[in-house]
């Protein structure tokens, strides 16, 4: 451990080699530096991933009732933390956890590879993260977070191994990352049903750019489905998504409440993505019986432009929710190449505008308003 004396900070240098550890907590004003060839291995002893309280915006573990396993690298209430290196590796050795899930013997929700809570001024960069038990990088209730130059890998059938999930967090920049996983590459979240509504801690001012990768079951960029605290001011640009179930996906449901507003998605290249643009609903996925079926989300101001998708198998599917507001959807310069001539857009409970979109979108997105904010944006 190197200390900086009067500067008030410390740095932990991890040298080349393989280092087995259970969960450990970080502290403020602290740098973790993994040298080239350094590998942190997550313990295979489940007791070394202790149970902690559920997040207040979720009310319970995301997968199971009660608490949840702590992440391998964890921190709460921190400031000025750097996790970086010379492309060193953190390997969660998640197979043990995935098998608990597959065998239906999981007792508590799996831990993340890295979770920081209630923290600010965070940099995560220049590392490889492998085989997370659950979501890989999870900043929750955080602000001023930069995640860049990361390689995140998990087997493509590994369950719920999202790459990066900013959750009820603000001022987040995710850039120059490569991700292969069994779930969304990047998913923006903000709490689950009545617990997220009560906490009302939105995710806002988030940039995702120059991210590439593949996920055969999920999406390149996902908004939700846990979005009950609200999501706004999201800018996504310069993504390359291949061999995936969906490219851009907005996920919500009855009971979520909350809002999704002012989302800009620009310059996305897709190859062999099954459904390039998808709004989905109706997963019937709730924390407990206390959810309110009358709490419906509001979605307004979704700008999607300069999208090229090659060899998709289905046209976009935009399914809003009955009695909810899904409006102000703007599509410009969207080209889907290789679809069957019989493939048509499917839209319900949505409205908006389009220009330069091929094949022609559904009537709900063909409102004649050439002077609208969509045409001029």
Automatic annotation (TrEMBL):
InterPro entries per record: GH28_Enzymes, Glyco_hydro_28, PbH1, Pectin_lyas_fold, Pectin_lyase_fold/virulence
Molecular function, one GO term: lyase activity
Subcellular location: Secreted, Cell wall
Keywords per UniProt: Cell wall, Glycosidase, Hydrolase, Lyase, Secreted
UniProt KW Manganese keyword: no
First-listed, main subcellular location of the protein, grouped into a coarse class: secreted
Pfam families given in the database record: Glyco_hydro_28
GO biological process, one term: carbohydrate metabolic process
Keyword Zinc: no
SUPFAM superfamilies on file: Pectin lyase-like
Family (UniProt): Belongs to the glycosyl hydrolase 28 family.
Protein name: Pectin lyase-like superfamily protein
Organism whose genome encodes this protein: Quillaja saponaria (Soap bark tree)
């Amino acid at each position: 451990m190197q200390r900086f004396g009067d500067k008030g900070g410390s740095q932990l240098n991890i040298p080349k080699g393989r280092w087995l550890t259970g969960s450990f907590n970080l502290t403020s004003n602290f740098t973790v530096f993994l040298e080239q060839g350094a590998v942190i291995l997550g313990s295979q002893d489940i007791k070394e991933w202790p149970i902690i309280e559920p997040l207040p915006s979720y009310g319970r573990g995301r997968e199971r009732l009660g608490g949840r396993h702590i992440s391998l690298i964890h921190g709460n209430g921190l400031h000025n933390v750097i996790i970086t290196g010379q492309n060193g590796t953190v390997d969660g050795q998640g197979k043990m956890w995935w098998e608990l899930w597959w065998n239906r013997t999981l007792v508590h929700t799996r831990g993340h590879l890295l979770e920081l809570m209630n923290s600010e001024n965070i940099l995560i960069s220049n590392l490889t993260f492998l085989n997370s038990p659950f979501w890989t990088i999870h900043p929750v209730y955080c602000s001023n977070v930069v995640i860049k130059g990361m390689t995140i890998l998990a087997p493509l059938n590994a369950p719920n191994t999202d790459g990066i999930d900013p959750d009820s967090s603000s001022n987040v920049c995710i850039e120059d990352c490569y991700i292969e996983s069994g779930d969304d590459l990047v998913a923006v979240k903000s709490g689950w049903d009545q617990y997220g509504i009560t906490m009302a801690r939105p995710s806002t001012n988030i940039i995702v750019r120059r991210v590439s990768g593949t996920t055969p079951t999920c999406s390149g960029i996902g908004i939700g489905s846990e979005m009950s605290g609200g999501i706004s001011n999201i800018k996504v640009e310069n993504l390359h998504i291949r061999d995936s179930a969906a490219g851009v996906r907005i996920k919500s449901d009855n009971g979520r409440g909350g809002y999704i507003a002012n989302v800009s998605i620009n310059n996305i290249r897709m190859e062999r993505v099954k459904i390039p643009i998808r709004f989905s609903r109706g997963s019937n996925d709730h924390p407990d019986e206390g959810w309110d079926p009358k709490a419906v989300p509001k979605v307004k101001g979704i700008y999607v432009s300069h999208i090229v998708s090659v060899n998709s198998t289905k046209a976009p599917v935009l399914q809003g929710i009955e009695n909810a507001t899904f409006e102000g959807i703007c599509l410009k310069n969207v080209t889907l190449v290789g679809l069957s001539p019989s493939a048509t857009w499917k839209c319900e409970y949505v409205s908006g505008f389009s220009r330069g979109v091929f094949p022609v979108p559904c009537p709900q997105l063909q409102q004649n308003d050439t002077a609208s904010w969509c045409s001029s944006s």
